[in-house]
Amino acid sequence: MSGDGALIECESLVRIYQTGPVEVQALQGLDLVVERGEMVAVVGASGSGKSTLLSILAGTDAPTAGRARVDRWNLLSMSRADRVRYRRHTVGFVRQQTAANLVPYLTAEQMVDLPMTVAGVPGHERRERSGELLEALGVGGCAKRRPGQLSGGQQMRVAIAVALANRPHVLLADEPTGELDTATSAEVFAGLRDVNRELGVTVVVVTHDPAVSGQVERTVAIRDGRTSSEVLRRTATADDGGTHIIAEEYAVMDRAGRIQVPRDYREALELTRRVRLALEPDHITIRPDA
Ligand code: ADP
Ligand code: MG
Predict the structure, then answer these.
(1) Which of 16, 19, 30, 51 gets mutated to test ligand 1 (max ligand atoms within 8 A of its CB)?
(2) Model pTM?
(3) To the nearest 10°, the Cα dihedral for 7, 117, 159, 230?
(4) Nearest atom, ligand 1, residue 54 CA
(5) Which of 132, 176, 188, 280 is the 20 to 30 A CA-CA neighbour of 47?
(6) Which domains are present in the chain?
(7) In the record, what terms sit under GO molecular function (predicted)?
(8) β-strands 170-174, 91-94 pairing
């Protein structure tokens, strides 16, 4: 796996939660590389470690072991002061519950203003930036409204604007469409895509909505705290000039050469503990241990 020039690079990432005598391995050696300017969807069953991954990338949780780098920051060895700087300027984070992102008594523009005030941005610049961001997310008309006066979709778009206030390189969004109906969720997702394309922000979005993950070029699937597969989508032009989308699924190999063989493949050939591997000129075969 390359990734030296990538914006985000996680390798063999482990996060163990200890609650009393019980140990939960939320991440069990996860690998992830995200290039600058990419938009990546992360999918996986509930409990597979998606929120844990995002909290680590957001700098709000620390990994137990492995490697995690975002931009020039090593997330395993950041000082407290660096962590504050990192959270303020490198990443923007949109949390899983819409309400957790907003302050009930502030208007949309006051909420976008707040992180800039904390960072010491001058007043005229703050006003310009918050107007620009709310406009870019299609909620310019909601600037004077409080969360209670906004629809679910508008609340989420304001939350995205707040997360982008200090011009982070990366936007992390944890199931931003989870509580929304299909039409509203498509709108919020379109907002994320605009942010990615027009503002050049790298986006990592967790979703369990297949319709949403179908709209990004790369989807990373997490299973049991590990990256299990990736789907890459590209647009191809047919002979008649029409375009269509090709989606290809890849298994993910870690640095030690381990890959996970999908369950349906294993069952189809009754692959169990040992398999036969053979190197061919341009591929590898895996056969049952007959
Ligand atoms: P997802 O977002 O994919 O649903 P999470 O990252 O929230 O998954 O959780 C992964 C696993 O870690 C789950 O088994 C969950 O119960 C456990 N977990 C998450 N946060 C904590 C915590 N603070 N303390 C103990 N266990 C946790
Ligand atoms: Mg979650």
Answers:
(1) 51
(2) 0.90
(3) 10
(4) 6
(5) 188
(6) 35-61+84-258 (3.40.50.300), 260-290 (no CATH)
(7) ATP binding
(8) parallel
